Amino acid sequence: MKIALCRSLQQRKQREGLNQAVSARLTNSSLSHVANMKTSNAGVAIDLLLESLLALGASRKKPARFVNQSKRLKAA
């Protein structure tokens, strides 16, 4: 689930033309956190990824899809 969230975050940043410094400012995160999200670092908390997606304009439905998809995969 983290990898999918990181990919979605990267796609949103590319679509909006945001660099890491702007992304850090918009998400109230440090540059190191933004860099860790970019590389799908295992130490990045899911809540930070979700908050960042929302801060960059994702609808609340998008993160909810990742959670629901993850639950379906665990149940299978």
Summary, kept brief:
The protein has 76 residues and is mainly α.
Describe the structure.
- Helix content is 74%, strand content 0%.
- It is globular and about 35 Å long.
- The mean pLDDT is 82.
- The protein has one domain (2-75): 434 Repressor (Amino-terminal Domain) (Orthogonal Bundle).
- The protein has helices at residues 2-16, 20-27, 31-38, 46-55, 61-75.
- Helix 2 crosses helix 3.
- The longest helix is centred in the first third of the chain and has 15 residues, at 2-16.
- It has 76 residues and is mainly alpha-helical.
Q: What secondary-structure arrangement, pairings included, does this model have?
A:
Elements (H helix, E strand, L loop, with lengths): L1 H15 L3 H8 L3 H8 L7 H10 L5 H15 L1
Name a few traits of the molecule.
76 residues; mainly alpha; 74% helix
For the record, what is the CATH homologous superfamily label? lambda repressor-like DNA-binding domains
For the record, the CATH architecture stands as Orthogonal Bundle
Elements, N to C (H/E): HHHHH
Number of helices: 5
Number of domains: 1
Say what the CATH topology is. 434 Repressor (Amino-terminal Domain)
CATH class: Mainly Alpha
How many DSSP E strands? 0
Rg from alpha-carbon coordinates: 12 Å
Give the oligomeric state: single chain
Ends distance: 15 Å
How much helical structure, as a percent, in the residues? over 70%
| Shape field | globular
As residue ranges, the low-confidence spans are none
Mean pLDDT: 82
What is the SS-derived class?
Answer: mainly alpha
Determine the strand fraction and express it as a percent band: under 5%
Main β sheet profile: none
